Each structure stands twice: as C-alpha cells, then as structure tokens.
Amino acid sequence: MSMDPDILRDYVSEARELLEQAQSDALALECAPDSDAVLASLFRAFHTLKGGAGFLDADALVEWTHHLEDLLDKLRSHVLPVTPTTIDVILKGLDVIQCMLDELGRGVYPNPGPSDLGQRICALASVEDVHTSPPESASENVRPIAEQPTGVESAESGTLQAWQKLKPDGKVGVYVERVSEGKDKGAVCVESASKAGDDAASDTISDEEFEQVLDALYGHKAPGVVPPAERRVMDSQVASTAVLPGALPQATAPAPVTSVAAVKTERPSSTSETPESTLRVESARLDSVMNQVGELVLLRNRFLSAMQTTIGEHEDLARIAREMDLTVNDMQSTVMRLRMQPCKRLFQQLPRVVRDVSRQLGKRVNLQFVGEDVEIDKKVVDALSAPLIHLVRNSLDHGIETPADRVMLGKNEIATLRISAVHLGDKVRIEVSDDGNGIDAQQVKQKAVEKGLIGQEEAARLTESDAIDLIFRPGFSTNDVVTEYSGRGVGMDVVKKTTQSLRGRLDVHTNLGTGTTIAMEFPLTLAVLPVLYLRLRRDVYAIPISSVSSLIDVDPQRLYQVQGRALYQAGPEQIVPFVDLGEILHQRPIQLGTEPTDGILTERGLLVVSEVLGNEDSVVKPIDFLSESHWYQGATLSGKGEVVLILDIANLKHSQAEPKRGVA
Questions:
Q1: Distance from C-alpha of 34 to C-alpha of 29, rounded to nearest angstrom
Q2: Which of 112, 128, 416, 428 is surrounded by the fewest CB atoms within 10 Å?
Q3: Burial of residue 440, with CB atoms counted within 10 A of its CB: 0-12 exposed, 13-18 middle, 19 or more buried
Q4: C-beta atoms surrounding 450 within 10 Å
Q5: Which residues make Cβ contacts (< 8 Å) with residue 592, sequence separation at least 6?
Q6: To the nearest whole percent, how much of the chain has pLDDT over 90?
Q7: Are the beta carbons of 418 and 365 closer than 8 angstroms?
C-alpha cells in the first residue's frame, strides 16, 4: 500500500475501537430490539468504518460495510425484524471486518469477504416491506451529491452548502463538525475550503443529506456490490448519544439465551472527550518512558544508599535528597497511571463468547459484570485476554448445567456467570464465578491417575485443594470426548502460566453442587515492584512485598510434622506450610535454635530465612539463564548496586499444602 503509515495506523486503531463498540451494540440490540438509539449507534459505526476505508481505497472493506449498512437500514425502518438470526449475521460480518483490519494493519489491501455470508447479508438487506413506503418529503430532499448546487449557487439555494477541495492525490476533502446548541438538534455542518482559497461556505444540513454526502464520497460501488437502497432515511436519533448495553430496557419478548448485566450502566457521551483532551500514543513509547523511569528509580535507590553515611552531616544535601525522592515517586506514579486501563477493556469481548458458546451448548446464562471501571496495567489486560476467554468457556462447558438438569436440581434454569474485578490494596483481583455443579475432587484425582499424571499412592495423599490444583496440569481434562470447547487437556495450564508470568496468583474455590470461583490476583502495575530483601546465610534474595503478610519470630516448639509435611502454627487457629529456604535453595536446612533465623509469613506459608534486611522499590529484569528455573521471577539491582534474584513464592511452595484454618 502507498498510504501514509501513520494515517493507516491511526485508522486501524480507531476502527478496532469502532468494531468493539459495534459488537457491544449488536449484543445490546438482541436484548432490546426496539431501541432506535442502539441501531443509530451501530449504524454510525459502520458508516464511519466505510468512510475511512474509502479514503484508503480499501474497496473490499467499503463493500462489506456497505452491505451491513443496507441490512441495518432495513432494521431501522422496521422492514426487517431484529431476530437472533440477524444478530448472528451482523456478528459474523463484524468478524470479517476484524480480519480485514488485520490485513490493513499488515499493510496489504484486504481480500473480499466470504461469498456465502455476503449473500446472506444481501438477501436480508434486499427484503422489501410492501405495506410501507418511504415518506415523500424525505425522498425529495435526498439527492446525489452531483445534483447538489455548489459554489455561489449553494449559498442561494439554502440546502446543502459544501465546497469540494481537490487535493494533489485527487481525494476530496470534506470537513464536518457538529453545529452549536443553538441550531436544530440533529443538524450537521459540512464545510470545505475552495481550491482558490476563497472563504469557506457552511450551513446546516439534515441527517439525510449528511448520509447522502458520505455515500457519494466513500460508498462508491466496487465490483460485485449490490446497489444501496435509493431512499435511505436516517433517524433523527443518529445524532443521539450512544448508550451502554446495560442501560437498555429489557425486551418484553422471550429472553435470549444470554443476557448481560453490568453494575455501571452508563457511559460518557462520545462527545465528552474533545480532540484537545485526548492524545493517542503508541504503547511502545509508554513502555520506553516507563523503562526510563524504572532506571531513574534504581539510580535514586543507589544515590540514597551511597549517601546514608554522610547525608546526616549536610542539612542541605538531606533536603535535596528528600525532594528528589518525592519527585521521583510522583513521576513514577504519573507514568504508571498512563499505563492503566479499565477492566472493561478486558471484559468487553466476553458477552460475544458467552452468547455463542451457550447457544451451541443449549444452555441459558445470565452474564454479570462487576468492577468494569477498576484499572489495571495494560500489560495485564493484553496478556489476560485469551486466558479469561478460556476460563469463561470452561465454566460454560464443564461447570454450568443444561436448563433441564438445573430444574431437576432445584436451580433456576438460567445460570449465572459473574465476572468481577476489585481493588485489594496494591493488587487487583479478577474472579470468574458460576453457580454450576462445582468441581469433584475425587473425580479429578481419578482422571489424573487414568491419564498417568500421578500414581495411586500420590493420589491417596492429596488433599482436596491439591487435587483441584491438578486441573492446571498440562494434558489434564475431565472430558472423555474431545469437543470444540474442551477435552484436549490444554488451556488451564496456560491460564496458570500466564498468571505466574504476570506475577499473579491463582486460586480455586469450589463447592460441589453449588458452583466454582476461579480468582486471579495481580499487582496494580508491573513496571515497578516493591520487594523485601532477605539474607539466606551469605546470599541476598528478594521477594515481592505484596505477598508478605507479616514478620514473626520462629519458635521451634510450633513446628510439626504431619504425614511427612512440615507445618507451623502461626497463630491460635492458623496452621501454615513451613518453607525452609535453606533446604530448597542450598540443599541444607536451616538449624532452628542454632542458626540466626527470621520468619516471613506469606500468603503461601512461613518462609524461614537467616535475616530480613529491608524493603525497596525495584525494577524486575528478566535473565535468560533463569528461564529454566521456576523458583525465580527475575532479578533486580539493589541500592548497593548488587544483582539480587527475586524469588517466586508460589513455585517455591508448590509441593506444600495450602494454608489451612484450624489446628489438625
């Protein structure tokens, strides 16, 4: 393509956002088929996509969006009813647009869409209503742009005033803006400068005329395109503000297979963000800035460490050091906020997944969202997309029963699938919960033995929690038959690996017969990691401070051996695994009562070390030779300039039992 790469990149980026909104609108339309506002929002998305595609000469995309636009025109005029079939066609049409945008993103013109789906769209778009005809007043006002007066004639006619300016590349430049509040609602102002540099002429036009302008400019017919409807009348609500699916009234018709509910049901108007308040920046540039801030944090740490011996003797130097510390902290916090994105960006793909899968499985599901405005690091949003989809599909396939089975069990035939996000201090917890049949630990152990993942003796020793953890083993599946959604033994292990790679933790809470919750916890940001330094004999290590509950003195009298496992009584009613880092990392256990010891109570158990040194903000650096070891998250540079390995608590303890309540 000869198109400017910056223009192409901007279009593809904005088009993807339009596509996401169009998918949300399509799903909302299924729940509220009589909503003109949703139809208008969906129509605008296709119209904008078509306009940009025409500017890029992406004829296949222009053709495809034009067909979908014709279909929506039938829905808006109520010639064609909104049914699950029409929604299916629209969603599949959006999938084709996604593929076309992927091709544009690679710098190539997209190929035409699949002919069979195109024929279905055209067939629906060609339906005519013999009982109604377009209003004469509307049809009289809609004329091709070639018939519209131009130049001085347009000023005299009082209809459409628009001058066209030919650019060197032959493109037509048209400048469009919404008129002020004092003019008619729904009006649009179209203006352009003349080639000779005369004053621009402008006036208001109706929505019908505005649509005709865009059709004439960008909706040119490509080979194989079905001619657009001759009379297309745009609702006055096209100029209205888009609304979230959750804000729509529920349809009075029979409930669809899947419904979507959200705690927050309103979103700001699309006009709330002006060009002056929003700036698009490549994520790579933000990553570069964050890396530089990380290096600044390390330099700050080294400076403060080096000045500790002399800073008390110089008051001015001490004040400068404090001010520098505050400034670096503020800069770090500001840059980290730039990387934060609402969880809504992560959740927005799930309604489509739930709708498609539940329909194919014959299940009825009410999808609920909580905490869509909770913000999390962009890296987590990007990395967690596929794992979250797998968790949802797994819940639909394995956890939730069919309507008939649910009725037999005394449950509501419509299952509830809840996706939530909540702040927990410096972490974010994301949960996928269902009210299905839960996980049978005994069945899990039996399947693991059958597949050769564990032996009979090991299975007998496993606690219920350990048995449930087997679902994250590669190759494990409780399904005997391979289906489109499960049975291959892949997916859950990827969920666990992804969670760990993001410095997160994964927990499963299940009750047989009542449901399952799979929870993932992640740090708010992955750019800077607060760590606690510790010494193990002569070596220094670090652990994420977010995993530390408290520091305690280790009492040898509270150490017990239960079925070959070391447990420690951390409190009156708290028994936790006893993790001896000396035994794990040095193959030489720490001698309690003989060697100096400190205890670090973590979410995974009690770590026994030689000494706790202190805490510090750090920047995690990946090290190649550590990739084969599951004990380390990476390395960092301490304030003294030393390379320190960061331990992965979950993997250090993976052979230990989960913390238990109550003394056994």
A1: 8
A2: 128
A3: middle
A4: 9
A5: 554, 556, 559, 608
A6: 14
A7: no
Nearest to 606 by CA among 544, 651, 552, 654: 552
Could you tell me the two tokens for 262?
Answer: 């959200």
SS3 state of residue 592: strand
Return the residue matching tokens 């690996």.
497
- Phi and psi angles of residue 356, each rounded to the nearest 5 degrees, phi first: -65, -45
Q: Which of 504, 522, 527 is nearest to 334 (CA)?
A: 527
Q: Where are the beta strands (DSSP E) in 553-656?
A: 559-562, 565-571, 574-580, 598-602, 605-609, 611-618, 632-637, 643-647
Q: How far apart are CA 485 and CA 471, in angstroms?
A: 15
Query: Which has the closest alpha carbon to 47: 232, 247, 192, 183?
Result: 232
Alpha helices, DSSP H, located in 339-409: 344-347, 350-361, 378-394, 403-408
User: How many residues are listed for the chain in this entry?
Assistant: 664
Reported as a pLDDT band with limits 50, 70 and 90, residue 625 is low
For the chain, report the end-to-end CA distance as a whole number of angstroms. Answer: 70
Average pLDDT of the chain, as a whole number: 74
User: pLDDT band at residue 151, thresholds of 50, 70 and 90?
Assistant: very low
Extract the tokens encoding 253.
């018709």
pLDDT digits (tens, 9 = 90+) for 282-317: 777 877 888 888 888 888 888 887 777 666 667 777
Q: What are phi and psi of 340, to 5 degrees?
A: -80, 140
* Residue 217 three-state SS: helix
Q: What are phi and psi of 502, to 5 degrees?
A: -95, 15
Q: Give one DSSP letter per residue of 255-274, joined into a string.
A: P-SEEEEES------TTSS-
**Backbone φ, ψ for residue 361 (5° rounding):** -90, -5
Q: Which amino acid is at 290?
A: M
Task: Report the SS3 class of residue 105.
Answer: helix
CA–CA separation, 412 and 410 (whole Å): 7
Q: How confident is the model at residue 139 (pLDDT cuts 50, 70, 90)?
A: very low
Please name which of 649, 650, 621 lies closest in space to residue 543, comparing C-alpha atoms.
Answer: 649
Q: What is the number of other CB atoms lying within 10 angstroms of the CB of residue 408?
A: 10
Distances in Å between the Cα of 344 and the Cα atoms of 159, 282, 555 are: 43, 20, 47
Q: Which CATH number fits domain 529-661: 3.40.50.150, 2.30.30.40, 3.40.50.300, 3.40.1190.10?
A: 2.30.30.40
Q: Which of these, 448, 593, 273, lies nearest to 457 by C-alpha position?
A: 448
Please name the residue ranges forming H helices in 574-657: 581-586, 649-652
Does the pLDDT value for residue 273 go beyond 80? no
Query: Which pLDDT score, from 0 to 100, does residue 485 have?
Result: 60
What order do you get walking across the sheet with 414-424 strand by strand?
258-262, 364-370, 414-424, 427-434, 515-523, 505-511
* Domain 342-523 belongs in CATH node 3.30.70.20: no
SS3 content of the chain, % helix, strand, coil (to 5): 40, 20, 35
- pTM of the entire predicted model: 0.65
CATH superfamily of 5-243: HPT domain (1.20.120.160)
Question: Residue 237: helix, strand or coil by DSSP?
Answer: helix
Integer Cα distance of 96 and 105 in angstroms: 14
Q: Mutual orientation of helices 59-76 and 84-105 as an angle, nearest 10°?
A: 160
The pLDDT, as a whole number, for residue 125 is 83
With beta carbons less than 8 A apart as the criterion, state whether 155 and 170 touch: no
Three-state DSSP class for 356? Answer: helix
Token output for 249:
């009234």
| Signed CA dihedral, 126, 127, 129, 130: sign only | positive
